[in-house]
From TrEMBL:
Domain of life: Bacteria
UniProt entry tagged with the keyword Membrane: no
GO biological process: methionyl-tRNA aminoacylation
Pfam families listed in its UniProt record: tRNA-synt_1g
UniProt cross-references to InterPro entries, sorted A to Z: Met-tRNA_synth_2 (IPR023457), Methionyl/Leucyl_tRNA_Synth (IPR015413), Rossmann-like_a/b/a_fold (IPR014729)
Gene3D superfamilies attached to this UniProt entry: 2.170.220.10, HUPs
SUPFAM superfamilies recorded: Nucleotidylyl transferase (SSF52374)
Residues of the Methionyl/Leucyl tRNA synthetase domain: 3-104
Name of this chain's protein: methionine--tRNA ligase
Length: 114
């Protein structure tokens, strides 16, 4: 196989990772969306999300074992937190998660998510 952008051979790599079992949450999410139709607006966005979830959610890699830099996984020093998880945690910790629960509770859940 060739990279469609660079036209160079694809190099296959193997890596040990920890995964978030997102696949287990599909049915519960669909139940929630059905019970709370106004949760995602506009309706076109809701339909897009529901269709995406109905196709089946895939588990998400949350760690990397081939890097020696990054935020360490607390229970496994051979792994670091995958950067997208780290970035997501920055949003929560910036408003007090883990340090100022009152501030966090006053921010989340927000009235509107864009």
């Amino acid at each position: 196989k060739l990279c469609p952008i660079h036209k160079k051979p694809v190099e296959l790599l193997k890596e040990e990772n920890y995964f978030f079992k997102l696949s287990e949450y599909g049915p519960k999410l669909l139940e929630f969306y059905a019970a709370n139709p106004g949760f995602i607006q506009p309706e076109s966005a809701r339909n897009e999300v529901v269709n995406f979830v109905e196709q089946g959610l895939q588990d998400l890699s949350i760690s990397r074992s081939t890097f020696d830099w990054g935020v360490p996984v607390p229970w496994d020093d051979k792994h670091v937190i995958y950067v997208w998880v780290d970035a997501l945690l920055n949003y929560a910790t910036a408003v007090g998660y883990g340090a100022n629960q009152e501030k966090f509770d006053g921010t989340f859940p927000a009235n509107v998510h864009l």
